[in-house]
Design a protein that fits this description.
6 strands, 6-stranded mixed beta sheet, single chain, 13% strand
Length: 268
């Protein structure tokens, strides 16, 4: 799934008003440890769309964009490469700028799970956990998606990572180990409509048994949980897509707002 396609979906989705940068805007690079965790130019789109009143002057929606792993050095490099030293990126035109200290509760160097938990829950967290302060935490603060739902807003999360990846998952679930993707997928489905209305990205192998795919390898115990998640999908009121064209046809035909949507368009 390409960023252009994601942008077309967001700009064309019924009743959602958002503004995206032009297609020629530079995509900020990110250091990639592996394709699974940090893909080049990883962008997490968390869209909170208001289907409520459209009164003039009232907040209509919020878009949170996370360029995972992007530092000031990378922003500088993107600026110099695309516009020259005197240029200004679109994000540098924003009226407000702030800096945060990104250390986690367990290490001076954060990981994606702890960093996303801070953004999604407003707390410092240990590395490797998602949506909670530490593995033994008895409870967790609400996700900002919970706050949006409480305000009668619809919520959507879009990523070009797996939807079970640490950054998007911290907004969707609470779990003690970011690497247990099969459990995270199972928990994501427990939050349908209560926390999210639309989730789009990768990670199909964590929702559907892909054992016949030679590129997919499950560790011991993972496939059993994947099969449970797949079975759960059969009775949940969710429109599920593994093919981008099918999803695009569905939204163009006006079905996009009818019920929750899960789109997982590639295996990882």
């Amino acid at each position: 799934m390409m960023r252009k396609e994601i942008g077309q979906f967001l700009t064309g989705f019924p009743r959602w008003k958002i503004s995206l940068r032009p297609a020629t805007s530079p995509v900020l690079p990110t250091h990639a440890k592996s394709r699974r965790y940090f893909r080049l130019a990883l962008l997490i789109w968390v869209l909170i769309g208001a289907f409520a009143a459209k009164t003039e002057g009232k907040l209509d929606g919020i878009v949170l964009v996370i360029a995972d792993g992007t530092s000031l050095e990378l922003i500088t490099a993107a600026r110099a490469y695309s516009l020259g030293a005197e240029g200004r990126l679109a994000l540098e035109e924003f009226p407000h700028t702030a800096f945060v200290r990104t250390y986690s509760s367990s290490d001076i160097v954060t990981d994606s799970g702890a960093a996303a938990t801070a953004m999604a829950r407003g707390i410092k967290a240990d590395n490797r956990v998602i949506g909670m302060a530490h593995p033994g935490a008895p409870s967790s603060p609400p996700s900002i998606l919970d706050l949006a739902k409480k305000a009668n807003w619809s919520t959507c999360l879009v990523t070009d990572d797996s939807v079970t990846g640490a950054t998007p998952a911290a907004f969707l679930v609470e779990h003690l180990n970011r690497n247990q993707h099969e459990v995270i997928a199972f928990k994501i489905m427990d939050q349908v409509t209560t926390r999210w209305d639309i989730v789009l990205g990768g990670g199909a192998k964590w929702f559907f048994d892909r054992v016949e795919d030679p590129t997919v390898i499950y560790k011991a115990g993972e496939r059993n949980i994947v099969q449970q998640t797949q079975e759960k999908l059969t009775y949940l009121p969710v429109a599920v897509f593994q093919n981008w064209a099918d999803f695009q046809n569905y939204t163009e035909e006006g079905g996009g707002a009818a019920r929750p949507i899960l789109g997982v368009f590639y295996a990882d």
